[in-house]
Amino acid sequence: MLEAPRGAPATSDIDPFSDAYLGDPYPFHQQLRDAGPVVWLAQWQVFAVARAAPVKAVLGDWETFCSGAGVGLANFKVETPWRTPSLLLETDPPDHTRNRAVIGRALSPASLRGLKSSFESAAEELVAALPDGADFDAVPLLAEAFPLKVFADAVGVPAEGRRHLLAYGNMVFNAMGPRNERFERAMAHAAQVVPWIERACQRDVLTPSGLGAQIYAAADEGAVSAREAALIVRSFLSAGVDTTAAGIANALYCFARNPDQWARVRADPALARAAFEEVLRFESPFQAFFRTTTREVELEGTVLPAEAKVLVLIGAANRDPRQWEDPDRFDVKRKTLGHVGFGFGIHGCVGQMIARMEVEAVLAALARRFERIALAGPPTALIHNTLRSFVRLPLRLGS
Ligand code: PQP
């Protein structure tokens, strides 16, 4: 075999946007990790990092690996983005720092404390309505229903038309991949969905005490303009439903496949929080996104040119045997510190506290009522450019 020249990356013809990859990425992740610290994906003409160490190196260096050129395959400096770029996800310091502080205040533990009991009672109510011993699809009835209720309530979005949040998230997250069929299918609903979202970002539509109103209050104080406030509220609506729905569905799937781990949570419901971290590591809802190099840079011996797109494989880093012992085992008592399911660095998930509060409330309510979580049929995987989850998850719960 020819040795790659020094400084040149390994090359792979793996397509991270093929149906085969997205249906079961894990064997491909292993190939990509083993190929080298940095891999050139010939088909898309981008680099990929799949090992934990280079993933963290990339996410830890925002000056070299920027977000302002978009966190999808498209380079915003070359291609026109499909919507006005996000003031959080798709920006770099100093703008990012300022905007992140505004949304970070709304999502701080102090601000969220008041939401905890409403999350718990909503979880209790949803779980009480689930059938005992009969089959049902956990995606609409639990995974989607819960954030559609509690997150949208928390932001202060009208009840009417909330399902558009799921459709919009589907657009946002599919748009991070190539403009393939998946992207086009997600965009098919844009004409109804986008105007609804834009309305829901307006001050007069939001409830006066929600997280959305808090962004406008920051605008009143001069932290951002009113136009920027609307775009920051749009980030809530882009980011907060599909991701958490995927997290809940993935948690249910992990427990259905690992009844011994559910028994541990049942025995000690305080484990629910730690269990969700292991779900994030083991079946990361947000699997992958891109950075763009701002200069030529050497990464673990490989030289990347400026203006290159780098695919950051969160889901692969979270199962890297260089970091994790027995990474393909789901273990709720594992030390999960250092997983990158919520990202890492300055763009690390600003919603992680509210996400944890939501999923913990659901798991704790389930643990109080149900001894058994079992698959009632084969689940249907979500084939998606960015997210990993299920479109159908038939379950049978038993008390
Ligand atoms: C994973 C921000 C964050 C959240 C936006 C936006 C969209 C998606 C996400 C990704 N995101 N968790 O539009 O600002």
The biggest sheet, with number of strands, parallel, antiparallel or mixed sense and barrel status, is:
6 strands, mixed
Distance between the termini: 58 Å
Gross morphology is: globular
Overall number of domains: 1
Tell me the name of the CATH homologous superfamily. Cytochrome P450
Low-confidence stretches: none
Give me the strand/helix succession: EHHEEHEHHHEHHHHHHHHHEEEEHHEEEE
Rounded to an integer in angstroms, the radius of gyration calculated over CA atoms is 21 Å
Record field, number of beta strands: 13
- The CATH architecture comes to Orthogonal Bundle
Strand neighbour order, sheet with most strands: 1-2-3-9-6-4
What level of helicity do the residues show? 40-55%
Q: If helices are DSSP runs of H or I spanning 4 or more residues, what is the number of helices?
A: 17
Structural class comes to: alpha+beta
Strand fraction: 5-15%
The small-molecule ligands in this entry are: 4-(1H-imidazol-1-yl)benzoic acid
Mean pLDDT equals 97
Here the CATH topology equals Cytochrome p450
Spell out the blueprint of helices and strands.
Blueprint: E1 10-12, H1 19-23, H2 26-35, E2 39-41, E3 46-49, H3 52-59, E4 65-66, H4 95-106, H5 109-112, H6 116-128, E5 135-137, H7 138-155, H8 163-174, H9 181-187, H10 190-200, H11 211-220, H12 226-239, H13 242-257, H14 259-267, H15 272-282, E6 288-293, E7 297-299, E8 302-304, E9 309-313, H16 314-317, H17 352-369, E10 372-375, E11 380-381, E12 390-392, E13 394-398
The chain binds 4-(1H-imidazol-1-yl)benzoic acid.
4-(1H-imidazol-1-yl)benzoic acid binds at residues 86, 88-89, 172, 235, 238-239, 243, 286, 349.
